[in-house]
Design brief:
single chain, 303 residues, mainly beta, Neuraminidase, 1 helix, 27 strands, 1% helix
Length: 303
């Protein structure tokens, strides 16, 4: 497998011959990578066996079991861990060994299964809520209480959960990320195989348009949009057929990064933030890039 460049812009982000290295393998379905900027380690989820794992220079090892089938993870601005839990249909915060539920219901009904998560500079927490955590293997099989799949915002400091998209808009909302200036929010849909972009104004989403579509291949039905990140230059890195698809801010497909297994998510880390960690089915991979992530709130002081 080789990386594919569709324009010179791709080569400024990644060497076409960059090696995708296996860091650890033998897992079930890896997801949710997040780099701790102070203590220099990576956390990631192994969803089916309900295990949270850590990777550092000593290798990969278990840190929490059961993990409530945790999926997407991030940190808030003081490095509390935020986790989307499939088994509890919750967003939970972990601080000093204490677990606190931040969101579990909307309009009196259980959330489907929070999946991916991002924290804005103002402290607001944004997350997607598809139904994968109510399916066998990836969650706890049970009926949905809500009749739609939404995207939500927890206001800075907490408060009532806010639905930020129309109920009928998404089939299975999944990855989400902000542009570097946080004036735009990107959200992909696994079933629709597309990425939408919204303008962000006062905590509201406006002016929805399709940023990219057709992120699918009939010969690779398990490789569709899932995790997604924005780099420091505003390019969008999204999982898809063959591995990762990289888009310029104007929506041009710059290239594809070949990964041996079906990719679920990604996150930059290590010194200089130039190592891209990739969770892909049974393995954790890494490759070196020429660009790092845009500065998220938890990276302040470390990037």
């Amino acid at each position: 497998m080789t990386h594919q460049a569709f324009g010179p812009g791709f080569r400024s982000l990644l060497d076409e011959k960059a090696v995708v290295r296996v860091l650890a393998t033998g897992f079930t379905f890896t997801e949710g990578p997040i780099w701790h900027p102070k203590d220099q380690y990576l956390l990631f989820s192994d969803i089916p066996p309900s295990i949270r794992r850590r990777w550092d220079k000593e290798g990969a090892h278990e840190v929490l079991k059961p993990s409530n089938k945790g999926n997407g993870m991030t940190y808030d601005h003081v490095l509390n861990l935020l986790v989307c839990e499939h088994a509890t249909s919750s967003v939970a915060r972990f601080s000093g060994g204490r677990r606190e539920v931040l969101a579990s219901h909307f309009e009196g009904q259980e959330l489907n299964s929070p999946n991916d998560i991002a924290v804005a500079a103002d402290g607001a927490i944004w997350f997607t809520d598809p139904t994968y955590g109510r399916m066998p293997v990836y969650g706890v099989e049970r009926a949905c209480q809500l009749d739609f799949r939404g995207v939500y915002r927890i206001p800075p400091g907490g408060g009532a959960l806010e639905l930020v998209v129309e109920k009928s808009l998404f089939t299975q909302p999944n990855g989400l990320c902000f542009s570097p200036d946080e004036k735009r929010l990107y959200i992909n849909d696994t079933e629709q195989a597309n990425i939408r972009i919204f303008d962000v104004e006062g905590g509201k989403l406006k002016n929805m348009r399709v940023f990219a579509s057709g992120i699918a291949d009939a010969t690779q039905p398990d490789r569709r949009p899932d995790g997604m990140k924005c780099d420091a230059l505003g390019n969008i890195w999204c999982t898809g057929p063959d591995g990762l698809w990289v888009y310029a801010p104007d929506g041009q497909l710059l290239g594809k990064i070949a990964v041996p297994e079906s990719v679920a998510n990604l996150h930059w880390g290590e010194a200089g933030w130039r190592t891209l960690f990739i969770t892909a089915s049974t393995s954790l991979y890494a490759l070196e890039t020429k660009v790092g992530p845009h500065k998220e709130s938890f990276m302040t002081g470390y990037i």
